[in-house]
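DEPOSITED CHAIN:
***
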Amino acid sequence: MSAPVVLASRSEARAALLRGAGVPFETAGSGVDEAAVKAALLAEGASPRDVADALAEAKAVKVSARRPGALVIGADQTLDLHGRLFDKPETRGEARSRLMELRGETHALHSGVVAARDGAPIWREVATARLTMRSFSEAWLDGYLERGGEALLSSVGAYQLEAEGVQLFSRISGDYFTILGLPLLGLLDLLRRHGVLGE
């Protein structure tokens, strides 16, 4: 029997991806102070891609140290606009400003995923998707924010690609799972190799 799989995240989007793929798992909050880790990394000159990787590792390692033998998955995603990292908007006004800044631009989403066992990372991947927003009108944007409501604040870009947020874009290059915050294909291969999923 394979070791249990633990998702070191309370993210419903990531849990839904694993459930949809037929992965047996449980969830555990990591307790990582993401803001402090991110601030320290940025002060050292880390790129948004490196921040996603480091936060994914911190979550996986911290939970795996508490769960001996378990295969723990940590994940994180950063939004990168010309090298500048964005945090999740806290208010609808901040979401509006974010989307106005992204309008007509191409930004990157870096999704890091790290698997750890017994307090040490054993596998990692960082995948990047590039998304170009169309030049939408401010009237359309205000309607979008009204319809989307508080749910939009759960996304760093203030959009949900699996919902009406797809209308924001004119071009997308990258893996759908990466955009949702969990590069899945490489992770599924790892789970097969560890006997969690069938060959």
Remarks:
- Residues 45 and 73 are 26 Å apart (CA to CA).
- The radius of gyration is 17 Å.
